[in-house]
UniProtKB/TrEMBL annotation, chains A, B:
InterPro entries: PLD-like_dom, PLD_domain, PLipase_D/transphosphatidylase
Name this protein carries in UniProt: Mitochondrial cardiolipin hydrolase
Biological processes per GO annotation: lipid catabolic process; meiotic cell cycle; piRNA processing
Gene: Pld6
Organism: Nothoprocta ornata
Cellular component, GO annotation: mitochondrion
GO molecular function: RNA endonuclease activity producing 5'-phosphomonoesters, hydrolytic mechanism
Amino acid sequence: VTCTEALLGEAAACRCPLPRGDCPLSRLLRRLLSARRSLEICLFAFSSPQLGRAVQLLHRRGVRVRVVTDAQYMALNGSQIGLLRHAGIPVRHDQEDGFMHHKFAIVDKKMLITGSLNWTTQAIQNNRENVLIVEDAEYVKPFLAEFERIWEEYNPTNYTFFSKK
Amino acid sequence: VTCTEALLGEAAACRCPLPRGDCPLSRLLRRLLSARRSLEICLFAFSSPQLGRAVQLLHRRGVRVRVVTDAQYMALNGSQIGLLRHAGIPVRHDQEDGFMHHKFAIVDKKMLITGSLNWTTQAIQNNRENVLIVEDAEYVKPFLAEFERIWEEYNPTNYTFFSKK
């Protein structure tokens, strides 16, 4: 284990709209912004403007960003998904009844960010949440493989369209 | 790292009402049922009858079980929380506007079970989910400390009651 950090959400610690100093959100942002080459994001719900801006910044810096999300939640008010797509970031979503309920990201194929936290302002400010940050390949690899599997499965060219006979 | 397993939810693998053979739910049950002394559970939503029965069985075997959950979800239809309380298992819940959104358990103070999975039939059967099982103290300790902190904070004797003047 080369790097581990458990961010256990003190709700009150993150009420600042722009994170200053050391709070769970600022630590999460710092890890995210360390990306140099690639960022895979697999999130049930993504509405945090700060995390959305960080992802757009990485995209502008040339980091290869890919996003997988849940179809039912991506169109909700305040979702960042439309903004990310508008910025040119590829987004794929499920076509299933169940939820795409993962909440993880992988930085440069070597750092896994996972836990209970959806990237929403509600969750960051008001909920009890945990985020685990891990650089051990034993943990990162199965999540990366799962991302690639879902990414292919949610490829729009694989969608099945039903039409009336 | 003495023991690690990433259970990445193949929804279809767990549609059996009683898990047979090797599926993510049967592997989760096996880890849970390995408890000999203590089991801390910190779950946003708990409605899976199989997991509920496993927890009750551990309680009957003399394992010290403690449950923390979310107040808004514990009274929902199908919740296991009432059954656990009825069986004599101590349960504490938040009194907050935000959600107690953790989804983790700790077996014998040395095995952490965490991830995106709420212990619900919906999540087990229909969602994309992940469960990380870790025995590395570096990961287990902060979660155990968080459980103890929340357990004390949610002690009913600490509740504040507001009354009209």
